[in-house]
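Hey,
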Amino acid sequence: MIDYLIFLAISTSIFALFALGLNLQWGFTGLINFGHVGFMTLGAYATVLLTLKGVPVIIAAVMGAIVAALLGLVIGFSTLRLREDYLAIVTIGVGELIRLVVNNQELPVGNTWISGAFGVQSYPIPLNNFRPNMFSKLVMIGVLTLVAAVAMFSLWRWINASLRLGKQQEFISRCVVGGLLGLLATAIYISGVISLYNYTPKAGLMLLSLSVLAFVFWRLEILINSPWGRVLKAIREDEEVPKAVGKNVFWYKLQSLMLGGAIAGIAGAFFAWQLNAIYPDNFQPQLTFDTWIMVILGGSGNNIGTILGAVIFFAYDTLTREFLPKIVQLDSAQLGAFRIMVIGLILMVLMIWRPQGILGKKEELTLGK
């Protein structure tokens, strides 16, 4: 059970990070990216191939993020001066093109070249050979406690916000959702403390992924609330307005696409580290649309909402995998289709009841743009 909760925490933090990149591009800037997984693919492969060449894992991950950002630069220069639908078409095509190229080309793995279809295995993973002493364990537990405390404080602020506004019904619903998320966070925290004390490499990867997620979220919040972020929001609403006051809209869009791509590249590095071996089929277009679900569910244009959407998505995924087979008698293929139908139904209901998502603001909704 502890190992599964650690796995759940790693998966959620990776895709929350991945979704933050998409939320920056679409939620804040209004750029429709249907090929977000392409940035993750480049980040993952660049990181593991560089580490196999002897580059330290952290430097390799940073370089993977740079490669993903350069993809955003190339896509941006070719599409951002055109209508938004061209960007959507190009990104989904580029994302699938990258996967097919990786699948059909030979890759430089160490001192040899192997077919991309065979995948890449046996690459270095951060903290995999780390043997902490008692002081190091206590420091890691302290970092995890700090991250958990900040998360619980943010959850409490979200619940308390509806009470301050006098919305009793919304306060009750938030208490229910917040209570369930709080229980999940507490279970993951306790499992993390136990795994860090009895150190396992997966526990170290969990702490690293959660710490990077917290850092990226913090920096994005500062950026979004800066003049730069306000220009992005203005572009999302009506790009003619910032143009009228002398802002270079194309350059701001390009920055957003590149930064969102770099964040996705970092998520790709963590995804590769979690899997221990990567294959082209690990980067199907379905990952992009799962991430769109997270952003829409939590509320576009809201970073806390994006993380909340990732938590709810993986909680749903876990619960349905565990309990749905006991309720509905279907084979594995039918069960997978049924789970997708249920999440689709939930999204349809959400779009009717609260189209801006759980934490989104209706006045900032970009769906009808």
